[in-house]
Amino acid sequence: MAIFLNKDSKVIVQGMTGATGMKHTKLMLADGTNIVGGVNPRKAGTTVDVDGTEIPVFGTVAEAIEKTGANVSVLFVPPAFSKAAVVEAIDAEIPLAVVITEGIAVHDSAAFWAYAKSKGNKTRIIGPNCPGLITPGQSNAGIIPGDITKPGRIGLVSKSGTLTYQMMYELRDIGFSSAVGIGGDPIIGTTHIDALAAFEADPDTDLIVMIGEIGGDAEERAADFIKANVTKPVVGYVAGFTAPEGKTMGHAGAIVSGSSGTAAAKKEALEAAGVKVGKTPTETAKLAREILAG
Fold this sequence. Notes:
Rossmann fold, seven-stranded mixed sheet
């Protein structure tokens, strides 16, 4: 089992023919991802040789779905064109759109999030400004390095791309059912809560690691959800214990206002929900090991 992505997922890449899209298409293919096409209106009808694999390029997402049965799109589209690309994916009713692009205007993210909702949420959006998701040994949709871990029984959901990689590496000997990088922008599609619910329902996930960061109240809301709905053990880490108040740190969403959104407040909320919270990523990995060791 896995959440959102598995070996049967048929993946297309919007923006595949650009430098970044091509680089990561090669890496995803190397990880065993079933990439069935790219989308670029200007290059429709052509094929691209990616390390010996011929991949067709389609003019639209709808055409790609019709011709290949694609059910996942990974978007490497420049910020100015990302809103239109996501809307196109939503209109085509692709079940999963993974928006890797950084620097998308918050207004644009709000617009395509609201559009997806108005269309009945038939398209799950992950991101934007995220590393994507990986089900080790099965499929990789995004930019997470495929060689830092192996299949296992831990589910990971994280706001931070870098900390996603570190946690996967720290627990590489145990391995992961799936790891989802949800992104750190103020407005994102899939949330901690969405991933927690999916991992709770996944019979092959025994423990959940949740990585948050300062800013907003997503972790506090996740804590409430855990208390009410999650029976599996959850280990947490909140980045930004040393961040000064009122200063944006890294991600656009990571800004602290007064006591709201601080790492300490989030840690307190999570611990009140029964989550063990580490002060560093390494300490968090150690807590996960201790729980799995029984």
